[in-house]
Amino acid sequence: MKTIVIGTLSLIVTVGLAYGSAAEGKGLYGTKCAACHGANGEGKAAIGKAFGVTMAPLGSKEVQSMSDADIKKVILSGKGKMKPVAGVTEKQADDIAAFVKTLKE
Ligand code: HEC
After folding, report:
1. Mind listing the pLDDT tens digit for each residue in 22-74?
2. Is 52 in the pocket of ligand 1 (CB under 6 A)?
3. Sign of the C-alpha dihedral, residues 21, 27, 31, 35?
4. Of 17, 23, 45, 80, whose Cβ has the fewest other Cβ atoms within 10 Å?
């Protein structure tokens, strides 16, 4: 009996860690991403211009078709003109990726 309880608990903990929390990610997005990507992921025209790129809205099909792992990779390793975002842990990147997936155009 005890084993079953412990087994179930560790399963919940494992699943909880494997998936990011969009609620946690929302606040982090606001401090780490919104300055460039806008409050709703629409992308700031001035930033795109400064980097010489067209920023795809985060709610676009293009970005929404990325896996959470791909989005996490962009956050932690950067992509194209976007530099890796400083001060973001693996767990926080999971949370932010989960939040990005809630954005719609
Ligand atoms: C300093 C400005 C800046 C910050 C801060 C920033 N980004 Fe970006 N991001 C960019 C730019 C510019 C691009 C486009 C890069 C390119 O196309 O070369 C981009 C691209 C992306 C893409 C890929 C979109 C595509 O077209 O493939 C994702 C996803 C993304 N950012 C998510 C995030 C998230 C999540 C955060 C916060 C953790 C964040 N970015 C923080 C500037 C920023």
Report:
1. 999 999 999 999 999 999 999 999 999 999 999 999 999 999 999 999 999 99
2. no
3. positive
4. 80
